[in-house]
């Protein structure tokens, strides 16, 4: 246990988040996502796990992970097949965690299901959650932490 670090962030996850650089993608996936097979194709090459809801995992990750301010797709959600504009409760909950972490509204873009799979394969790593609701899959692009003021 560490002070100031969300206890959901295990050593493997913290190591991966620390190793990632600006522009690297992180995937947070629900239990139905093909996480293991996709994770084997990522830069890390292995699956990470946090057995909690997607919103709890997003909150924990975003407590230490800056989103990229240079791109419009730093936060993304898998869109519902045939209903690209529908935002189910699981995605609404994660949206609230993103907004809270960033201190302002930060809308997620939607990505078609198979396009999301392709983005996930190019990601740095995949964290599979314990989220059982459908479409609990998200991509977060890592930003930067500016230097301290001189």
TrEMBL record:
SUPFAM superfamilies: RbsD-like. It comes from Pseudaminobacter soli. GO terms for molecular function: D-ribose pyranase activity; fucose binding; L-fucose mutarotase activity. This is RbsD/FucU family protein. Pfam families: RbsD_FucU (PF05025). It catalyses: alpha-L-fucose = beta-L-fucose; beta-D-ribopyranose = beta-D-ribofuranose. GO terms for biological process: fucose metabolic process. Keywords: Isomerase. InterPro entries: RbsD-like_sf, RbsD/FucU_mutarotase, RbsD_FucU. It comes from the Bacteria. PANTHER family: FUCOSE MUTAROTASE (PTHR31690).
């Amino acid at each position: 246990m560490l002070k100031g670090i969300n206890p959901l962030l295990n050593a493997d996850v913290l190591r991966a988040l620390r190793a990632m650089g600006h522009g690297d993608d992180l995937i947070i996936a629900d239990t139905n996502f093909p996480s293991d097979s996709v994770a084997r194709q990522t830069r890390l090459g292995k699956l990470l796990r946090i057995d909690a809801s997607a919103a709890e995992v997003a909150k924990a990750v975003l407590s230490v992970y800056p989103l990229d301010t240079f791109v419009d797709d730093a936060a993304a959600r898998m869109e519902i097949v045939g209903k690209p504009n529908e935002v189910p409760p699981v995605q609404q909950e994660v949206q609230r965690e993103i907004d809270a972490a960033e201190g302002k509204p930060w809308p997620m873009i939607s990505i078609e299901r198979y396009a999301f799979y392709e983005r996930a394969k190019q990601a740095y790593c995949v964290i599979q959650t314990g989220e059982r609701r459908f479409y609990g899959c998200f991509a977060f692009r890592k930003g930067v932490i500016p230097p301290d003021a001189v």
